[in-house]
Design brief:
Rossmann fold; 6-stranded mixed β-sheet; binds NADPH dihydro-nicotinamide-adenine-dinucleotide phosphate; threonine biosynthesis; 12 strands; 2 domains; binds the ligand N[C@@H](CC=O)C(=O)O; Dihydrodipicolinate Reductase, domain 2; alpha/beta; methionine biosynthesis; homoserine dehydrogenase activity
Length: 380
């Protein structure tokens, strides 16, 4: 349809191309690795999406932990410069108030932080009409009571919450598991390398003649690790992913139920992040010894395993361990920052469904978050 100029003085200022578009108003919290890619991806795909579908994607807020940029008409590609120049300090009530006073509809809150405090705001956002999308895993791994209350609130307010990137970054994993489970397929075990950063670290460390600290530094620089890389190295991040999958299967597990092998030497566990980063070289000797003692033709893999009796709410075993596997096995053959998920089910028997691909990285994760935004935009 082309733009039409009509005689009516009000209508003649309206671009008929946009008249039927459903405007989706998005507030993005966290514009680090993932968040900044997401804002850029939305802004650069906006026109194409508007042409192909009846959607007008409007980012009306972007914030980090210190400042926010609020623009009713939406951010443009200079958003970061504008935010640096005119971003203001804020609290989350300001965003809710802004959405209300500007009568913004079809609201989506996107959480690209890794912050435990921020998820406490989810309920208020839902209460005020926002759908939720998060790459942040924390809301799905707090105690079961929080998990269930949030879902109750979402149901009562008819809002959606999508978090496909919580496990396997941009890979279509949670959706697949949800569908298998909902359709009555008995999932009997899920096992694999769930961490993109640890996959990259051990693939590289096993294959190349480099110190552990230099490989870890590369993983940090590539944006594969959590904001504090110790969350990856201590196993918490993988543990969270395992728990999220367990809960998708309606298992009643808490984070404390997971048996996790912590890879950080004891005296580096509770120092500040700054001190940890300054002392990375202390990881070199312990990991070099492990490597030297390894059996020929094996490689290290940090493996998560959801097993036990998954037909009982409290029958599951959740383990996360560093293991040596043959180089030519499915896990041993992983490359780069790939993750791999083996999903065993009753119908598929001993041959699991396998989902494999980039398990970390800002661009792929942002694309996954974008996918969740579009899924919600299509819903009602
Ligand atoms: N990187 C990856 O490959 C993947 C990441 N994820 C998840 O994505 C999330 C983001 O990761 P990543 O982008 O790498 O992390 P970064 O550290 O690069 O970015 C985090 C952002 O969150 C902001 N932030 C922190 N606390 C708050 C708060 N209370 N309110 C508003 N903003 C806040 C930070 O702001 P400030 O600078 O002011 O602190 C920063 O902009 C994490 O939860 C991670 O687990 C999921 C899948 C893959
Ligand atoms: N730090 C995480 C990023 C994705 O969740 C990982 O390494 O897998």
């Amino acid at each position: 349809m082309s733009t039409q100029v009509l005689d009516n003085p009000v209508l003649d200022r309206i671009d008929l191309n946009n008249i039927k578009k459903k405007k989706i108003n998005i507030a993005i919290f966290g514009h680090g690795n993932v968040g900044s890619h997401l804002v850029d991806q939305i802004i650069s795909s906006k026109e194409e999406i508007s042409r192909r579908r009846d959607l007008d994607l409007n980012i009306f807020a972007v914030a980090n932990s210190k400042t926010i940029l609020l623009q009713q008409k939406g951010l443009n590609k200079n958003w970061l410069e504008e935010k640096t120049e005119s971003g203001e300090s804020y609290n989350v009530e300001d965003v809710i108030f802004f959405a209300k006073t500007n009568n913004l509809q079809n609201l989506i809150l996107v959480d690209n932080t890794a912050d435990a405090g921020f998820v406490q705001n989810y309920s208020a956002f839902v209460e005020n009409g926002f759908h939720l999308v998060s790459s942040n895993k924390i809301a799905n791994t707090l105690d079961l009571n929080f998990y269930k209350e949030l879902r109750k609130k979402l149901t009562s307010k008819k809002r959606h919450y999508l978090y496909e990137t919580n496990v396997g970054a941009g890979l279509p994993l949670i959706d697949t598991i949800k569908l298998l489970h909902l359709s009555g397929e008995n999932i009997t075990r899920i096992r694999g390398v769930f961490s993109g950063s640890l996959s990259y670290i051990f693939n590289t460390f096993s294959e190349e003649d480099r110190t552990f600290s230099s490989v870890l530094k590369s993983a940090i620089d590539k944006g594969f690790t959590e904001p504090d890389p110790r969350e990856d190295l201590c196993g918490n991040d993988v543990g969270r992913k395992l728990l999220i999958l367990a809960r998708e299967l309606d298992l009643h597990n808490e984070f404390e139920d997971i048996s996790i092998q912590n890879l950080i030497p004891k005296d580096l566990r509770s120092v500040s992040k700054k001190e940890f980063l300054a002392r990375l070289k202390e990881l070199d000797v312990p990991f070099q010894i492990k490597k030297k003692n390894q059996t020929k033709d094996t490689v290290f893999r940090y493996v998560a395993d959801l097993n036990g009796d998954l037909s009982k709410e409290t029958g599951a075993l959740l383990d996360v361990n560093l293991v040596s596997v043959p180089k030519n096995s499915m896990l041993g053959a992983l490359k780069g920052s790939d993750s791999i998920f083996e999903i065993y089910t009753e119908s598929y028997g001993n041959n699991p469904i396998v989902i494999q691909g980039a398990g970390a990285g800002a661009a792929v994760t942002a694309r996954g978050v974008f996918g969740d935004i579009l899924r919600i935009s299509d819903k009602d």
